[in-house]
Structures are given as C-alpha cells and as structure tokens.
Fold this protein.
Amino acid sequence: MPKPENFDKLTPDQKRKARLEAWINHEGITFTDPEAEKGYRERAQMFADAFEMKKPKRLPVAIATGFVPFLYAGYSCKDAMYDTDVLAKAMMKFHADFLPDTAASAGLYVPGQVLEILDYKLYHWPGHGVPENTSYQCAEAEFMKADEYASYLSDPSDYFIRTYLPRVMGALAPWKDLPPFTDILELPFIPWSTLPFGLPHIQESLKKLMRAGELSLAWAGKVAEIDNAVVTTLGLPKYQGGFSKAPYDVIADTMRGTRAMMLDIFRKRKEIKEACDRVVPFMTRMPYGAYAWGASPTVFFPLHKGADGFMSPKDFKELYWPSFKAVMLNLIQDGMIPFLFVEGSYNQRLDLIVDPDIPDGSTVWYFDKTDMAQVRKHLQGYACFSGNFPSSLLAAGTVEQVKDEVKKLIDTCAGDGGYFVVNGAVLDEAKPENLHAYVDTAKKYGVY
C-alpha cells in the first residue's frame, strides 16, 4: 500500500505501524519466486513483532557483519572496498550459506578509491594505513580546535565548508581560502565571491571532488544491485533503515576526538551543551537521506562516548542524554524507530535510559557488553532489546560453546517477547561451523 494521504495527521503510534506494514508488505520490491517473497514477509513480521515488544512465532536472528563475508569467501578486507564484483559475490555467498533472518547491506563497505582521492584523514582502512586484512581504524585528532566552539555554533555549515572539511580531507584543503557563501548578496559582490573558483588550487580540489562523486555514484548503483539481489533472491529483509548519531558523538567522534572531549567536559561544559543542541536538527534530518517508503523504519545510532568507561552517570545525564533524547523524540514523532547500538557497556545507564518521556515500544536497544539479565529487568515492557552474544566466541570458541551461549542468552532474555538474537559487536572473523551453530541454534531453540 502507498503512503497514506493523511499520514501527517496520524499519531506517532499509527505512523510507526504504517511504516512497519509498508516494510512487511515489501513496497517496491519484486521477488524472484513466491518462496522468497513468503520468507521475506515472515522474517520482517518476526522483527516487527519483536520491535513492538510482542512474541514472534520464533526469535529472529541477525548477524552484525564486519568484514567476515569476505574472509569467508576467500577474499581480503581490501577487496571489499576496492572491487564491487568481489563485494557482490561475497555478500551473496555469505547470506545464502548462513541464512540469518536479515540482510546486511553492501553499503557498509565504502569505496576505498573515493577515500584515497579525498585524502580522508579520520580513518585508516584495509590496505591504507592498516594491513589488507584488517578492519577500519579510527584515527582521531582535534579536527576542531578547543577555541572554535563559537565559530561552529555561529554557522555550522560555514564552519564545515571552510574549516573542518579542509582539515579532515586533504583534497579539500584549498577550501579554507573560499569566502563565506553568505557574502554572495547582490550584483557588486558576485565577481569577488566567484573569483576564488578560478584559482588553480581551488579548481584542482573541485576536480577531485567531482571524480569522487562519479565513483561514488557508480558504487551506489552497484550496492543497490547487490542488496536487491540478496533481498529478492533469498527473501531476507534489511532491518536497518536510516542512520544518525547522538549529537555528543558527532562532536566527540568526528570533530574533537576522545581525549580532547574528555578534557572539554571539565573546561568547556557550557560549549558542549550548546554544540550538542545545535546538532539536533541535523541528526534528525540525516536518516531520511537513506530512507524511502517501504524500507525498514529503523534509524541506526552507533553510540560511543556515552558508554560507562567514558563518563560518569552524572555527565551522561547532563551532557549526553538531553540532545540525544531530543533527536529520538523527533524521529519517534514521525513514526521512525531509533535502533540504538550501545558499543561498550551501559551497566551504569540502565536506570537513566528508561525515560518516561520516551513512549513504551518506540525504540530498539542493541547491546554490546551490558549485563543482559539487568537489561531485561529494566527494559522488559519498555523497549525491544537484543545483543551481547560475544563475537569473540564465534571466532575462537567451539561449536558446543556457541550453542550453549545462544541457549543461555535466550533463556535469560526472551521470556515475554520484545527480543531478538544478534552478536554484540560487528564480526570480522568467525569459524564457519560456529556461525552455522549460532544461526541454527537460535532458530531451533528460539521458538515460543
């Protein structure tokens, strides 16, 4: 069914249900055969039931994939980022062989050539700064200086164009010489404002950006083909829709870096709060760039600097939670479902995240290392929850250990519904027999 004409007049709950129904009914997807379509509907329904804190007919199981599909298929991590034919073969083989209940997107593996052209400095990636069979590595630095909060707050877009991007991408370094675009007002200002675009170093920068754009466009088309083939051939829905970040993490991950941000907690508390508030509308808008009607209405948030080891509960409550909550509430109001990946642990946060302002059944919490018995105690009846299967066990454990851990996790968490099975951290390495044991045990043991 198409998007309801009266969608804007629906309640948040009604909007969420309409979005979930459109996803389950696979709007815009044509399957290769009836069995694939049937499998898609059943799997999407199981996840939708879990998201809405119901008991699905069985627990759906997901694999949070890093580079494991490529190593499993006999390729390198570098191949995933530089060869879209390899990307296609590995993603199809991985999903067909292990058949989890949801598909991972090929879009997770960004084109390395684009990063090279732009001279991107925030990350190392396979074959560029780290070995070819090693995953990404964040190379944090103070790409925003401690005395630049005011500049960012006054005009975030201008700050990104003329200060941040020239630092984080070597190809865009010349942009620091551009005038503020807000100077382009009336006739006398036009030649002076466009003059820099005639300078050789600015033109060379724009040529690199255009080339990166051409490569990205071709890559995006190939990713769409790969994802569509997995979904339509195997009947595996993609359960992650859009993407966003907690405002605090935008500043701490992307701009200031961990060390500098932890010092700012003591030295620039007021500026942190103001910067996070400034980010809220941008992070509310971001997920819709990847969302189309009929896709999963979840919005994936990788949560980083709010974890137990990075700040006290008091600082979490004052600095991290308010702006993050504001983004979530904006999305919930529109029927979207925040899908919250807690990297690290939230053992000291469980009381805080059960917030009376956030409606029951409107979020999905995905944990990495948090005590799942305590998660169930706090979140059962409040939100769908998942995670905490140790990815290390899939790489280094035995088949029997994997089976026992799956059963233990299901016994601990599944009771009253609102739960699904997924490993706690993205998976770069795994023994094939362990992955089979993980998926098969979850499917057989996770029946209500």
